[in-house]
Amino acid sequence: RTSTFPTPSSQEKVWKMMNSSLLTPSSSSHVQTPATTFDHEDFLDQIFASSPWPSDEAPPPPPPSSDGFVDSRHQQIMMMPLPSHHQNEVVDGSSVHSLYNGFSAGGSLPFHIPQGTAGGMMNQQGQALTQNQPQVSASIATGGTAAAPPQSRTKVRARRGQATDPHSIAERLRRERIAERMKGLQELVPNGNKTDKASMLDEIIDYVKFLQLQVKVLSMSRLGGGASNSQISEENTSSAVAGGNQATGNSNDSLTMTEHQVAKLMEEDMGSAMQYLQGKGLCLMPISLATAISTATCHSRNTLIPGAAGGVGGHPSSPNLSGMTVQSTNKVKLSGNGVTEGSPPLVVKEAL
Amino acid sequence: MASADKPINTDVPEKDVFALHFLQSLSNLRRQNTFNSPEKTNDRVKKIKKAAYVSMARAAGGTNRLWSRALLRRAAKENNKIVRFPRRKKRVTCLRRRSNRRDPVEEEEAERLRNLVPGGGGMGTSKLMEETAHYIKCLSMQVKVMQCLVDGLAPK
Known about the structure:
Domain IBH1-like N-terminal (chain B): 18-78
Helix content of chain B: 55-70%
Keywords (chain B): Nucleus, Transcription, Transcription regulation
Subcellular location (chain B): Nucleus
Low-confidence stretches of chain B: 1-5
Strand content of chain B: under 5%
Shape of chain A: elongated
Main location (chain B): nucleus
Distance between the termini of chain B: 55 Å
Mean pLDDT of chain B: 73
Oligomer: heterodimer
InterPro entries (chain B): bHLH_AtIBH1-like, IBH1-like, IBH1_N
Radius of gyration of chain B: 18 Å
């Protein structure tokens, strides 16, 4: 029996209803051998009546009669495993079936857990689920129901008593959740095409550091006119991180920022400007040299000799300065026209 | 619950919300007497940076996000202000119910991330990722705002 699953919002409503309308936990261990095999079919038909599952069809508040009690209970029980199966979109009728076998009238065992931590469960819905499942499966084992064929796709399905180590189920669910969020993060972070989880996390960490560094530098450059050398030098260590990201997605932003920074530093003291650039992996050199190098060795990945750059960049009033990164993988040109004291308009060009 | 993760909300307000908060905080800073003294650029920079973060936290979601709450609380502590946060319906801190929640392979990275993202110490890994996503979005928005301001105010 198949059905489409309820929309998440209705599921949440269902959860809330479940948690709020939980009946007293007094009837503790009534989950036992199925004295009566009631009519599952009716339940399932009722519940999987139409697609999508409208929230109105959510279990009604438990009526006072014991039968109604059972019904709502079981309906509530029904919904628990469903959210975890949303991927497969197939209600495993037989497995759910076996769930019910463990319950007789008034069985409320699985609800102990969600009820006890109803508040926290909202945050830990997956774990509530996993907690309930082993209980259920334990009761199933006592009930001695026939095991449904385990799903081949996700191991989360295996709710049998044997392989359902509650910890492993929780682990899997947790990993699934984390993987989902990693996917979401991947789109945010530039250069997020790494499939390896560890390297993806590295990228994320670097990106966060980079953004924080940007905030810091921007707060220095604006209003701040002339950041002191000490701050810049402590930036140099962390700007190595930024250097890696510069070439990937944020090249424009960070280069503009770098320009501003360098411009301001050059107003004060050429040495500090050079230090800053070197910390970022950039250097200054005359445009002529830069163009000569770029045309001659477009594809070379040699790093520049720092000495050459240092020797040239020591003139604060030299008209034309340009810079090239010393990064091996990416070359960025930082060329300027007429660097005079006061307002240096720097032009940034990106080469290969 | 895996399916309930689908509607993870990582929406972030528009740029102007951030800009508004930031400009307000900047103008507040200007009104301070000690602000415009040219010698102490260090302090000035630090104040601006803090103002940036605080305004970002307010713009991004106020007290609805874990990281923003942690940021605001931290900032308030530095100012020796007592901030009271309204109690949320859901629990803010996740219940640590299982012993083996942490996968040792990814845990060191998660530690680093925790140190970066404000409020990361009290979160489980999956919640941490969610907060990181929102934090990244807000940070990039804030950076854009500040960059626009810098460009607008840059001397020609």
